[in-house]
Specification:
Structural class: alpha+beta
Distance between the termini: 99 Å
Radius of gyration: 32 Å
Number of strands: 8
Length: 223
């Protein structure tokens, strides 16, 4: 009888402990849901209230002016889908972690820089009928992301990240997405033949210009 009573008492204690854990987990879940609902309610109020936007910005100040000495001869338009996932060890993504699909649209310009040309870059024949130009190879500019056409396609967050996002909009996360997108677009531009296209366009432009100036033979090299 003592063994049965002790066994029954132990089982009741285990059941009570499990119920206490379940109640605590349910309480935490209700708090999280309530916080999310309050946030959505506050945002809904802000969107539903009609108001006006007042621009109190100061005047634009011109800080510097520089002369351009390069010919932008080609431009490539790129699109990349950034799939960025962050998770924590030993914890499921439903608790902590996030995954973002970001569609980035941008362009890269290829140009020929004329600023470093020396006196020996141009050679004219003795009869003034021919001219030769030696130009540097075309290079790629930094990627220029189109913020109007780039957007977050999908986003998944764990409970902890949802609560954190309630207090912080995580601007670093958005900056990281743009950095990864710029890096991928730059790599794609490097693997493309954009610089070759730029050199061909620059050669055509300069040849037509020099022919219009009266030169019969025009030789343009890159190197």
């Amino acid at each position: 009888m003592k063994d049965l009573r002790s066994t029954g008492t132990g089982r009741r204690l285990e059941v009570r402990a499990l119920l206490a854990v379940a109640a605590a987990a349910l309480a935490v879940l209700l708090v999280v849901v309530a916080v999310v609902q309050v946030r959505n309610f506050v945002q809904g109020i802000g969107q539903s209230v009609n108001g006006k936007t007042i621009d109190r910005s100061g005047p634009v100040v011109l800080q510097s002016v520089r002369d351009l000495a390069r010919y932008e001869a080609a431009a490539g338009n790129f699109q990349v889908i950034v799939d960025l996932e962050k998770d924590a060890a030993f914890l499921p993504t439903t608790i902590i972690g996030q995954r973002t699909l970001f569609v980035a649209v941008g362009s890269v310009n290829a140009y020929v820089d004329f600023s470093g040309l020396g006196n020996d870059a141009v050679s004219v024949t003795s009869d003034h009928q021919g001219v030769g130009l030696r130009l540097p190879h075309a290079v790629l500019d930094k990627p220029n992301l189109d913020h109007q056409r780039s957007y977050v396609f999908a986003e998944e967050r764990g409970i902890v990240d949802r609560v954190r996002a309630f207090f912080d909009q995580a601007p670093n996360q958005q900056a990281e997405l743009y950095q990864v997108a710029e890096q991928k677009i730059a790599e794609a531009a490097t693997q493309s033949r954009l610089t070759e296209r730029a050199e061909a366009n620059a050669r055509t432009m300069l040849r037509d210009l020099l022919h219009s100036l009266g030169y019969k033979q025009v030789t343009i090299t890159f190197g």
